[in-house]
Design goal:
The chain is mainly beta and 80 residues long. The protein has strands at residues 2-15, 18-26, 29-32, 35-44, 47-56, 59-66, 71-78. A seven-stranded antiparallel sheet has the order 3-2-1-7-6-5-4, with no helix packed on it. β4 (35-44) and β5 (47-56) form a beta hairpin.
Length: 80
């Protein structure tokens, strides 16, 4: 799995207290998320992050959402 920390644009669906990413753009590619495999949170100082492990076809991605500044990041990629 390749590690990154790149800013990305993400389309999400908010349902009550749930954040559900649907697709994102990385290197001018529109990647549709077929499944959210795992969600967890972390905290660094006062900043809280949501981490999403997602699948798109045979590829896996780790996304990070900073709830303070509302920015999304691509953390890791494993493309088959």
């Amino acid at each position: 799995m390749q590690e990154f920390n790149e800013s990305i644009s993400v389309w999400v669906f908010f349902n009550n207290n749930l954040i559900q990413p649907r697709s994102f753009v990385w290197h001018n590619r529109h990647i549709k998320i077929s499944k959210v495999n795992l969600v967890h949170t972390s905290k660094i100082g006062t900043e809280v992050f949501y981490h999403f492990s997602v699948s798109s076809e045979d590829n896996f991605y780790r996304l990070k959402f900073n709830i303070h500044n509302l920015h999304w990041y691509l953390e890791a990629v494993e493309e088959g």
